[in-house]
Write a structure and sequence with these properties.
- Strand 1, helix 1 and strand 2 form a beta-alpha-beta unit.
- The protein has a single domain, classed as Alpha/beta knot.
- It is an alpha/beta fold.
- The protein has five helices and five strands, in the order E-H-E-H-E-H-E-H-E-H.
- The protein starts with a strand and ends in an 8-residue tail after the last helix.
Length: 157
């Protein structure tokens, strides 16, 4: 299986870039990972929040791999513990999923069309995080999940 981490827009903050790079290195010890920062065209940044979300949605739909098992990360998604998330990943591997994608939308979320193109919707927390901070939390949880599956001590420290 290969992980595809799909993020809307660029990571701006240096501390987040550093953390993302660290967890990417750690994750690649367990599984191939591709990170894609999809930057919508400049026209998508014009208008009110709903117009921006719609323009980003059209752009995302044109960029998403149709054959991947795609998971949207959204505050309204299903909550799970770190152990349950590890089991979720193991189940996808057991199903023979070749490409597992995790999508984090832009600051205003995603359109219903983008949501419906995903096979699952998960939430990282009942709390709200910036879409850029969510990237780091996702990567840490993916790393944690693989250490859980390998029965390594990271999760229990």
């Amino acid at each position: 299986m290969k992980l595809h981490l799909i993020f809307t827009g660029k990571t701006e903050e240096a501390y987040l870039k550093e953390g993302l790079a660290m967890y990417l290195r750690r994750l690649q010890h367990y599984i191939p990972v591709e990170v894609r920062e999809l930057t919508p065209p400049r026209q998508a940044a014009a208008g009110n929040a709903e117009q921006i979300k719609k323009a980003e949605g059209r752009f995302l739909l044109s960029q998403l791999e149709k054959s991947a098992y795609l998971v949207l990360l959204d505050e309204t998604g299903r909550l799970m513990s770190s152990v349950a998330f590890a089991e979720f990943l193991q189940a996808r591997m057991n199903q023979g999923i070749r490409d597992l994608g995790f999508l984090i939308g832009g600051a205003y979320g995603v359109t219903n069309e983008v949501r419906e193109s995903c096979r699952d919707v998960l939430s990282l927390s009942p709390m709200t995080f910036t879409h850029q901070m969510s990237r780091l939390i996702l990567m840490e949880q993916l790393y944690r999940a693989f250490t859980i599956l390998k029965r390594e001590p990271y999760h229990n420290i």
